[in-house]
Amino acid sequence: MSEHIIEAMGLSKVTIKNGKVVDVTEPEVEYCPLFDHHRNIKEITPEIIAENMQFRIDDFGMCMPNRQLKMKDYLGFGISEIMCTLLNEKVIDSAIMVLEGCGTLVISESELVQGIGGRVSGLVKTSPIPELINKIGEENIVYPETAEIDQIKGIELAIEKGFKNIAVTIALASDIDEIERIKSENPNVNIYVFVVHTTKRTSKEARKLFDGCDVITSCASKYVREIGEKESIKTVGQSIPIYARSEDGKKFLEIRLEKMGGEKPKKDNPDLPYPLI
After folding, report:
1. How far apart are CA 143 and CA 104, in angstroms?
2. Which of 9, 11, 44, 241 falls between 20 and 30 A from 25, CA-CA?
């Protein structure tokens, strides 16, 4: 049986089995400006979450064998959009991401980056979907038999495949030390760290993630925002800021901004997630 667990909008944990939403936990974030602006959702409730997740399943095949994998850049500003641009500009040559039905994988095509990362975030656990594994290619998936999520093994697979400029998305502070180890063991390889899904990270976790990354998104994280507002060397966005920690990260944000035609005017009172946790 196909089973997938996603930490979705509002930090609710959603369980999907065989193409149906079967369980939704109470959200911990009541309001998200992204869902308000794009979906007119003023309050995040279990019912709204279930409806939105089922819409994704029915619309583009999330967690299904017919999952649409590719998507063109639509000029938004998020982690997948940044990495999509970096691949197109040949700044990076590969990306380590996570896909339902496949787990951790190595990809080098920009439309796959956008189609995978731009549609689903917060994948906690997944199970193999043979049709998707065949489309991506077993050789590009860390654990095709189990669809396990392991970003460190993903980096190692990318290095084995000969990639030299690797972007990786992570959400766990525990990955930082392992990434530093891989960097020290492979001085001829550049590994760029993009931190996603930061809501409810502890102060200690936020500190470690921020210090170890190139780019980090704030989501509804109280502590990432506190650090980023003081220490980011380049910030894009107000409602959901994205912070650059390194000079490379700053360059990445600037490359994306150039693609989009520059920054938008800042608002006096931007909408923020509530509560920040």
Report:
1. 7
2. 241
The strand order across the sheet containing 234-236 reads 103-107, 94-99, 165-170, 190-195, 215-217, 242-244, 234-236
Task: Look at residue 262 in the predicted model and tell me its pLDDT.
Answer: 87
Long-range contacts of 244-248 (CB under 8 A, 24+ apart): 244/214, 244/215, 245/210, 245/211, 245/213, 245/214, 245/215, 245/216, 246/213, 246/214, 248/192, 248/214
The answer to whether 21 touches 50, Cβ cutoff 8 Å, is yes
Residue 13 has pLDDT above 80, yes or no: yes
- This prediction has a pTM of 0.97
Measuring CA to CA, which residue among 215, 223, 244, 242 is closest to residue 232? 244
Cα gap 105→161, rounded to integer Å: 12
- d(Cα 128, Cα 141) in Å, to the nearest integer? 11
- The full 3-state SS of 231-269, as one line of letters, equals HCCEEECCCCCEEECCHHHHHHHHHHHHHHCCCCCCCCC
210-234 per-position pLDDT tens digit = 999 999 999 999 999 999 999 999 9
Residue 209: how many other CB atoms lie within 10 Å: 27
Tokens of 170: 């992570």
pLDDT tens for each residue of 171-194: 999 999 999 999 999 999 999 999
CA atoms within 13 A on the CB side of 28: 14
Q: Which residue, chain included where needed, has tokens 């189609």? A: 115
Q: Which segments within the chain are labelled E, that is strand?
A: 3-7, 13-17, 20-24, 94-99, 103-107, 123-125, 165-170, 190-195, 215-217, 234-236, 242-244
Greatest CA separation for the chain? 51
Tens-digit pLDDT profile for residues 93-152: 999 999 999 999 999 999 999 999 988 989 999 999 999 999 999 999 999 999 999 999
